[in-house]
Specification:
Strand order of the largest sheet of chain B: 2-1-11-10-12-13-14-15-16
Number of strands of chain A: 0
Number of helices of chain A: 13
CATH class of the largest domain in chain B: Alpha Beta
Helix content of chain B: 25-40%
Strand content of chain B: 15-25%
Distance between the termini of chain B: 48 Å
Structural class of chain A: mainly alpha
Oligomer: heterodimer
CATH topology of the largest domain in chain B: Rossmann fold
Shape of chain A: globular
Radius of gyration of chain A: 20 Å
CATH architecture of the largest domain in chain B: 3-Layer(aba) Sandwich
Helix content of chain A: over 70%
Largest interface: A-B, 30 and 43 residues
């Protein structure tokens, strides 16, 4: 697990990363995102419709032990994580949409998450009293909102400063991701060795299948491909640290350790899988950009020149 | 109708009626003896204003004021003349994408009384070698990104000094360092330069020092320089064989500047415009129009190093109050496909102009709907510095037309024997005017076939309507002779392009045993499954039998020129190769 210091350090870094993300944006980018507000709604549907159901289904189908199921369902019900914004940025996705989705899902988390947790853990006959620390949710919102707005202002004031901040933020993002992977694996080596394949399957599957379903649902609801890829990342990437925090606030002793297993494994593997998917998405986006350069402009409907 | 009657159709200049109040019959006599004078004049008049801004895709930017451009280009001129000791008239090749270094270097070359040789940065080493040796260039300014292409060829040329410029030249320290770090470490766009070279910054410093030490009067380099002296060797492939250098004189370029401005002056407020330059400045269209015309008018020029992908223009449009934009069909087409552009079209836009290739109907219409301004189409060629015809911004603009001849230009449409064809009939467009080049550099025979009795033969087939507006039908060389009937590839291409499943199309003529030549179509399909039968059936609805392609070949892409013209000759060559025994 991460130490207290590391967690603090991480949230401070997150502020700088979001400053960089904000610097990559202009107000117009948000206005463009708002032109199709259903994007955010589709995202919320994926976040709180698909993910909890997916977690529950995985728990039932793979018959995982009760504490693991609690951790799994908890992760499924979490709002979008801030790292989704970094991955969206690197995959050349719709960053403004991603940030808005993270904010919206975090905002409604205070009300929706306890309800979802009660519902799904109740279905599985698991303990259903959880504390969702509102202060923590507020903290996530502040970490997102304030630096993003400052970043946008920076870019508006001087694009050179904005673009430099953007690059620094991106670089920091990569460093944080590498840091997480490099420090986490060796320290938790014994845990990784003793964990059963089934637990691995649910911890990794939650993210990967979540992205897949998120993409399909978004495409089915007529989001364009770039927005659908953004929604996919947003859906699959949950706020891992928040899940871990809730577990530590709710459970104690060995039970806590067992419940923590999935949130912890998920948090590790989502970084790996998202990195791979980001590289792939980036290539797709670049190809689409080049193709769009040449795509034909069509005449107004029925304005045939025959 | 006799040829002389037909000639009067053109010689009466029916288009002059369209000039109205705004456009003079003849271009005003150039106010400057040569380009260095014009540059110096504008630099003084607008000294404190921003002249150029390079805008990178991420919004990073650097700018120069008119005074800074003047100082740096003076320093470069002194470097050429005092440090390198070049005599006037030396050819200096410049090979950079759009960036702040370009105007500084190009203006410096002109101020030094040397000859500018614009070179396409995307050239292969062998194409570069051909151009450098043909022009007998002695100095080369090259962007460091492409300097590795010189390794194998430099020894075969007369170039003795290589000066390395940067895309981020004249940027502030931090953005420059950041961009160069990213280019070096991440995109690997900065290969090491293994040939002896000097950095542009150092050349400028040496020039400035020499100037101060010897109290050099830079204006003296060009004092007494005749307007008829060559300002630039502008290379053009034409459509035939090897590329050759059109000798454009100071008088050619200066008068054409006035001619071009006459067509758009009504929409230009001196000292208050902001023009987006996404087309490459090494190309004559952007060189004359964006660089010279708008520098003379005190505009701010926003330079974009590369417009591909078109997303690269987003920050330029967002961060600067763009009032003018020049482009080619592919550029306007690409912008129409971008949500960020169509949702928030530039608010200050006054005019857009297109040249290079035919502007498609759908693109022009959509542009007008989105931006509220129309795209004025024109026509020009390297050999005419380049502007010949334009739709007047102050008057009537006709869609699908290249507009009317610019002031002081005679235009005729002639048949194969050089006799004028009656108005309304297709004929080769020829022109006579002060903007016509002196000839091709060291190629008297090719000059003689292109310029006859003072008339420049463009090789383009056009038609003139009653108002004196011209419309390009096709390239003369591309015309297909099917059993004695003329087929214009453009007509067939337009029909095929109407199919939604067609992304791009090109039509050429190929030798055919039965009909002499046969129509052959190349199609890049867009998604879906498109068959040869479907294409031919579509053609049958709109075209007479002999115009319908005998064969349709599907491909993934088309060979194109740097500005996006499809190369029919390349397709023809490829076809002939497959036919060879």
């Amino acid at each position: 697990m991460l130490t207290e210091l590391e967690t603090r350090l991480l949230s401070v870094m997150m502020i700088f990363i979001m400053l960089g993300m904000g610097s990559a944006l202009t107000l117009k980018d948000f206005l463009i995102a708002f032109r199709k507000p259903q994007g955010v709604l589709v995202g919320l549907l994926c976040q709180y419709g698909i993910m909890p159901l997916l977690a529950y289904t995985l728990a039932v189908v793979l018959e995982v032990p009760a504490p693991v199921a609690v951790g799994l369902i908890l992760m499924g019900c979490m709002p979008g994580g801030t790292t989704s914004n970094i991955f969206t940025y690197f995959s050349k996705g719709a960053l403004a949409l991603s940030i808005m989705m993270t904010m919206c899902s975090t905002l409604v988390a205070v009300v929706v998450v306890p309800l979802l947790l009660r519902f799904y853990t109740g279905l599985k006959g698991l303990p259903s009293e959880y504390v969702i620390p509102a202060g923590n949710v507020a903290q996530v919102l502040v970490v997102l909102l304030v630096p993003t707005v400052i970043g946008i202002a920076l870019r508006k004031w001087n694009p050179n400063v904005g673009a430099t901040t953007e690059l620094m933020g991106g670089l920091l993002g990569v460093l944080v991701i590498v840091f997480l992977i490099v420090t986490w694996v060796p320290r938790n080596w014994s845990l990784l060795m003793t964990t059963s394949a089934r637990v691995y399957a649910v911890a990794i599957g939650l993210g990967v299948v979540g992205m897949l379903l998120g993409y399909w649902l978004a495409r089915g609801l007529r989001q364009d491909k770039r927005r659908a890829r953004t929604i996919a990342l947003e859906t699959g990437i949950q706020n891992g640290p928040l899940g871990i925090l809730i577990v530590t606030l709710t459970f104690t002793g060995t039970l806590q350790e067992e419940v923590l297993l999935v949130p912890a494994l998920y948090s590790l593997f989502i970084v790996l899988t998202s990195s791979v998917i980001t590289v792939w998405f980036r290539g797709v986006t670049t190809r689409e950009e080049l193709a769009r350069d040449q795509a034909k402009v069509r005449t107004a409907p029925a304005a045939g020149r025959a | 109708m006799s040829p002389s009657q037909a000639a009067s159709d053109y010689d009466s200049r029916p288009w002059v009626a369209q000039y109205g109040q705004a456009i003079p019959l003849e271009p005003p006599p150039p106010r400057h003896a040569h380009l260095a004078d014009l540059i110096r004049d504008a630099s003084e008049r607008y000294a404190k204003q921003t002249a150029f801004t390079t805008c990178l895709p991420n919004g990073m930017h650097g700018s120069l004021t008119y005074r800074q451009v003047a100082d740096h280009s003076d320093a470069f001129a002194v470097y050429l003349r005092e440090v390198l000791r070049l005599p006037a008239g030396t050819r200096v090749a410049v090979l950079t994408p759009n960036c702040l270094a370009y105007p500084v270097v190009a203006f410096g070359v002109l101020k030094a009384g040397c000859v500018l040789v614009n070179t396409n940065p995307l050239y292969t080493p062998s194409e570069m070698e051909h151009q450098f040796t043909d022009a007998e260039a002695e100095v080369l300014v090259i962007v460091d990104m492409f300097a590795n292409k010189l390794e194998g060829i430099l020894a075969n040329t007369r170039i003795r000094t290589v000066i390395a410029a940067e895309v981020t030249q004249f940027f502030a320290t931090v953005p420059r360092a950041v961009v160069r770090l990213v280019m070096k470490a991440w995109t690997r766009a900065l290969p090491p330069i293994r040939v002896p070279h000097v950095r542009l910054a150092r050349a400028l410093a040496e020039g400035a020092a020499a100037r101060a030490a010897n109290a050099v009067d830079v204006a003296a380099y060009t004092r007494g320089q005749a307007p008829s002296s060559v300002a630039a060797l502008q290379y053009t492939g034409g459509t035939t064989g090897v590329s050759k250098g059109a000798m454009l004189t100071h008088a050619n370029l200066l008068v054409n500047l006035e001619q071009a401005l006459a067509m758009g002056r009504s929409h230009i407020a001196e000292g208050a415009e902001c023009i987006l330059t996404a087309l490459p400045l090494y190309h004559i269209f952007a060189f004359q129009f964006n660089l010279l015309c708008f520098y003379a008018c005190g505009a701010r020029n926003v330079l974009v190093p590369t417009p591909r992908p078109i997303q690269n223009l987003q920050r330029a449009f967002e961060n600067y109050p763009i009032t003018w934009v020049s482009g080619v069909n592919t550029l306007f087409n690409a912008l129409m496909n971008e949500e960020w552009f169509t949702a928030f079209p530039p608010k200050h836009l006054k005019a857009a102009v297109a040249g290079g290739t035919t502007l498609q109907h759908a693109v022009a219409e959509r542009w007008k709907r989105v931006t509220g301004t129309s795209i004025a189409e024109g026509f020009g060629l390297t050999e005419a510095s380049p502007v010949v015809c334009f739709n007047p911004l102050s008057g009537m603009q006709k869609p699908d037309s290249i507009g009317i001849p610019v002031p002081g230009t005679e235009v005729r449409l002639v048949d194969d024997a050089g006799h004028p064809v009656p108005a309304g009939q297709p004929g080769e467009l020829i022109l006579r005017g002060p903007q016509v080049m002196q000839g091709y550099w060291k190629r008297p025979e090719e000059t003689a076939t292109t310029i006859r009795d003072g008339w420049l033969y463009t090789g383009d087939i056009a038609v003139m309507d009653r108002d004196g507006y011209f419309k390009i039908v096709d390239r003369k060389k591309d015309m297909i002779l099917v059993s004695g009937f003329n087929v214009y590839p453009n007509e067939v291409e337009d029909v095929i392009a109407q199919m939604d499943a067609v992304l791009e199309v090109a039509v050429i003529g190929v030798p055919d045993a039965a009909s002499g030549e046969a129509v052959r179509a190349y199609v890049v399909p867009q998604g879906g499954d498109l068959t040869e039968e479907a294409v031919r059936a579509h053609c049958k609805r709109f075209l007479t039998d002999y115009k319908i392609p005998k064969a349709v070949e599907f491909r993934m892409d088309m060979p194109k020129t740097p500005i996006g013209k499809i190369l029919r000759k390349e397709l023809r060559a490829q076809h002939l190769k497959t036919q060879a025994p």
